[in-house]
Hints:
The chain has 321 residues and is α/β, with parallel strands linked by helices. The protein has twelve helices and 13 strands. The strands form two sheets. Strands 1, 2, 3, 4, 7, 8, 9, 10, 11, 12 and 13 form an eleven-stranded mixed β-sheet that branches. Strands 5-6 form a two-stranded antiparallel ribbon. The radius of gyration is 18 Å and the shape is globular.
Amino acid sequence: MESLNRARQIDRRSFLQGVATGVACSPLASLAAAEGDRSRVIVAERDDFGRGADINRQVVKQAVDAMVKALSGKANVDEAWRTFVSPKETVAMKSNGQHRGGSTSPALVWAVCRGLVDAGVPEQKIIVLDRNQQDFQTWGVKTFEDMPKVRFVTADSAWDTEVKVGPVKTRLTRVLTRDADAIFNLPCLKNHVIAGVTIAMKNHMGSIPNPQDLHGNLDAIAELNCLPPIRGKTRLAICDAIVGILDGGPQYRGSHCTWPAKSLLAATDVVALDAVGAEMVRKARKAKGLRGIKPDPRHIAHAAEIGLGTADLGKIDTVRV
C-alpha cells in the first residue's frame, strides 16, 4: 500500500531528525498523515461478541479481519494483514494483562495471531509482549489449544539503554528496540483514576520498568510514545472495548463500574484511537449519572500538540464495519 510505504519513509527521516536534534516528537508520520489531515478509527460493534469466558472467538476474528481490511483498503484479508507487516518482519504485539477483569481479551490476541499466521507471517516472527509472567497468567491466552506457536516474551526480560521521557529517566524493553520490526498495540478501554483513561498510549507504560515515575507527569505518556522505537515501528492499534471500565479503573471493581461497549476499535493513529475511546468513556459515565472524566486525560491533547496524532474529534472519521 503506497501510503503506508510513504509513512514508513517519513518515520525513518523522523528517527534521524530526532537523534540529531533531540526533539521528542517530529511532525506526524502516521498513515493518517500520509493520507491527509484527517484520521480514521474503525469501529466493529457486535451484539454477539459475548463477554468474559464466553467471548466468541470466531466473531472477534471476523470483526478484526473486517477492520484490517477497512484500514488497508484491501478486499483480501491476507493482503490486508500484509499491508501492516510482511512475512520477513518480526512483529511484537503489546497486550495489557495487568488486572483480571480489565485485561486485553485472549480472544483478541488469538484473532490477531491467527490473522498474521494465515497471511504468511511465520509463527516464530510473532511476539506477544506483556510486562511480566504474572500478566500472562492473568489473561491466560496460552490456554487455547489452537493458538499459533508464537513467542510469549516479557518486557522485563531485558531493558535497553537509558533514555529520557520528559524529566524522567527510563529504559525501553529490548523487545521493542532490538527484536521487533513492527509493533501492534492491543490495549483495552478503561477509566484510570490517575490518568483519566488508559487506552493505547498508556499501554506502553508496561514497556518500561518504572511506570510509576511517569504518573506524576501525564504529558510523559505522550512523550513515551514519541520515542523513536515506539513511534517509528507502530503500525496498528486494536483496542478491546467489548466491555469497558467506566469508573475506578484500571482495576476491575465490579460490574457496576463497567458497561457493555460491545466494540473493537482499530486505527493507525494511536492518538485518534485514544480520543475516540475517551469519548466513549465520557458518554458511558454520563449515562450512569457520573461527571466527566476526572482527572482530564490531558496526555491525549498533549500528544496532538507535539505531533503524534489527531485528538480533535472533528478531524477523526469514525467508520463502522
